[in-house]
Design goal:
Shape of chain A: globular
Structural class of chain B: alpha/beta
Number of strands of chain A: 3
Oligomer: heterodimer
Largest interface: A-B, 27 and 18 residues
Order of helices and strands of chain A: EEEHHH
Largest sheet of chain B: 9 strands, mixed
Radius of gyration of chain A: 12 Å
Distance between the termini of chain A: 13 Å
CATH class of the largest domain in chain B: Alpha Beta
Helix content of chain B: 25-40%
Strand content of chain A: 5-15%
Number of helices of chain B: 13
Radius of gyration of chain B: 25 Å
Strand content of chain B: 15-25%
Number of domains of chain A: 1
CATH architecture of the largest domain in chain B: Alpha-Beta Barrel
Shape of chain B: globular
Distance between the termini of chain B: 61 Å
């Protein structure tokens, strides 16, 4: 089971990590990205999906998404 | 179908800790307008950043303060503290309301004259008065508040050349329970220096001692300190009358009233702890009426309040330049207004608001100014909404000491605009440009390369 799938994630952005007992919160776009990561989508695909749903340009969406991936890596939620 | 408003993704760890009595941050409401004028429109027209001053707030604050004192004491006079904000338009609003001018340098004195304040309504304070400054001020019948013996002896020295008799007060410093005690200005009460100065003035015969002045400190949140000071000044006035049969016609209690900006390190927000004008007025006027002045006379009460009269009326609006992460993962936001414009950010925790609607999400954020200086921090580690590059913010209560202590450092100083009582926006100080500085500089011939 991937690390992301081991997390308990509520619809309003509350994340519980059973392996450490830690809790996190994220926002709508964070949930959006995690959902796509669970579906094994590539970075490019996620950025396109963000641009389709949100009022944002390619550069900003990419920059913020990769920063978010860094957060997830730092918290050992993805590899 | 329209797309959703973009807000970058965040991940916040939920950390257990000691519960904070204020609870978590409520959604920070944007401040979109000042006096019904859209901040976005002001930035679009006058650039970013831009200082915005509300004439309405100045007049209302002045009236509140004056009313608090004048309803409790028969003879009250305010003198606008030029150093707090000496933009001509601001000074003229206070003068229209009835304020005299309180200046602390030849430069400020000239500004007061340019603002059509008559010489006899200018109080000249401070330790820096040149012979020429003193001669001009005395000949204009201004009130000279003597700061030290060297100044007193300068006046005695120039007496033969003067056209008018000097009208003076002495500044007195004393222990009122305020720490630190401001003893660098004026003559000390407890060690007898103030009494010596009075003796020296009145034995000379050529100088009129008409007032006593104190200024016990700045950002005084303990109104009781003023009543202690007035008791001591009254004792000095009585001693003066007993020896010289000379009455004091005014008591100047200076300024130092706190504004509602919170000092760094304060536990409670200043909005909850700052005494109101009524609190100050009650303490000061009760002391003025309960002590006995010579001959049962009632000296005029002069107030030189600056900060508390103007802080609320000033705003600084600007834009976000960038967002970044610090080494420990904390968020940093860089804005286009730093300590070059907000020197006061070194001691205040300024309230800063987004100009547009944001979501309820926020992150611990350190807000930096645009300077290439590590110390350029406007707010340290506050919960703040997720603004993007180009988004606008507005900082509240920046009317005092910003537009006088600001620095031309690294970049130009911006426009200052005034919103008048009809909502019309006027530039009252133009933004600087290269020419402003070029005109002051001279290049020696051997460096004038073509």
């Amino acid at each position: 089971m991937s690390k992301l799938n081991s997390l308990a994630i509520s619809d309003n952005g509350f994340i519980f990590k059973p392996s450490t007992g830690e809790s996190f919160t994220t926002n709508e776009l964070g949930l959006f990205i995690i959902q796509f990561l669970k579906e094994n989508k590539s970075g490019e695909e996620i950025i396109n999906a963000i641009m389709q749903d949100f009022d944002v340009d390619n550069v900003t969406a990419g920059r913020d998404m990769y920063e978010f991936l860094d957060f997830l890596k730092k918290e050992n939620m993805i590899d | 179908m329209s797309k959703k408003i973009y807000e970058r993704p965040i991940l916040r760890k939920v950390v257990e800790g000691i519960p904070n009595k204020f609870g978590s941050l409520k959604r920070l409401r944007p401040v979109e307008t000042i006096d019904n004028v859209a901040i976005n429109d002001i930035i679009d027209e006058y650039g970013s950043p831009v200082f915005i001053i509300s004439e309405k707030t100045i007049r209302e604050t002045y009236k509140t303060a004056y009313c608090a004192f004048s309803t409790r004491y028969p003879k009250v006079q305010f003198a606008w503290s030029y150093k707090t904000n000496y933009l001509d338009a601001v000074c003229r609003i206070f003068h229209q309301e009835g304020s005299w001018a309180e200046v602390v340098s030849g430069f400020e004195y000239e500004k007061a004259l340019d603002n059509n304040v008559s010489g006899s309504k200018i109080i000249f304070n401070g330790p820096d008065k040149s012979d020429a400054d003193l001669t001009r001020a005395i000949n204009n019948k201004s009130l000279i508040h003597i700061d030290h013996f060297d100044e007193l002896y300068t006046i005695i020295e120039i007496l033969p050349k003067l056209k008018e008799r000097p009208q003076v007060a002495i500044r007195v410093n004393m222990d009122t329970g305020i720490i630190p005690q401001w003893d660098r200005f004026g003559f000390n009460y407890e060690n007898g220096e103030a009494w010596n100065a009075i003796n020296r003035i009145l034995t000379d015969g050529g100088i009129d001692l008409i007032g006593l002045h104190i200024h016990i400190g700045t950002y005084i949140t303990m109104s009781k300190a003023y009543s202690i000071a007035i008791e001591k000044l009254a004792a000095l006035a009585n001693k003066t009358f007993d020896r010289f049969q000379k009455s004091i016609s005014y008591i100047d209690v200076g300024g130092g009233f706190a504004s509602q900006n919170t000092l760094q390190g304060a536990y409670m927000p200043a909005t909850d702890t700052t005494p109101s004008f009524d609190d100050y007025a009650h303490a000061i006027t009760t002391a003025m009426t309960s002590v006995n002045f010579p001959n049962n006379e009632t000296p005029t009460l002069i107030l030189e309040t600056g900060r508390a009269l103007i802080d609320e009326a000033g705003w600084l609006a600007g834009s976000v330049l960038a967002n970044k992460r610090l080494a420990d993962g904390r968020r940093a936001m860089v804005i286009d207004s730093g300590i070059n414009l907000l020197f006061t950010a070194f001691w205040y925790d300024y309230e800063i608001f987004p100009v547009q609607e944001t979501s309820f999400q926020s992150e611990p954020t350190t807000i930096y100014g645009p300077l290439c200086m590590n110390i350029d921090v406007v707010r340290n580690n506050i919960d703040f909404p997720l603004l993007n590059k180009g988004d606008r913010f507005v900082i509240k209560r920046v009317g005092a000491y910003t537009m006088t202590q600001w620095m031309q450092f690294i970049t130009y100083r911006p426009n200052v605009v005034l919103i008048d009582l009809n909502g019309k926006v006027h530039v009252i100080r133009k933004e600087e440009n290269k020419e402003v500085f070029r005109i002051q500089e001279l290049v020696p011939k051997h460096l004038q390369n073509k």
